[in-house]
Amino acid sequence: MIRRIVHLHIANDHIDDFLVLFEGSKAAILSMDGCLELRLLQQIDDPSRFTTFSSWKSDQHLQDYRASDLFLSTWGRTKAMFSDKAWAATFEELYRGGPDRGS
After folding, report:
1. What are 67-93's pLDDT values in tens digits?
2. Phi and psi of 79, rounded to 5°?
């Protein structure tokens, strides 16, 4: 399993537009082959900063999504709302602990 983290800085006057776009896209993203999880986080002390967190069965599943019309359309619309460049990275999960995970 891999994890994809993307940090976004959305212009203040586009925050509501971004949230509407995410709300309208999340079900389609979750229905993509290999998508296991999708989260949207908003920074507490700077509401214009968001982080998406997604889990994928494999890097190939993620790459297939990134080549899809859904991604290209959604990302293009999202980029138009940026007030700063996005940061993204993909990670392989090596350990996940916690009281409900048998750590």
Report:
1. 999 999 999 999 999 999 999 999 998
2. -55, -35
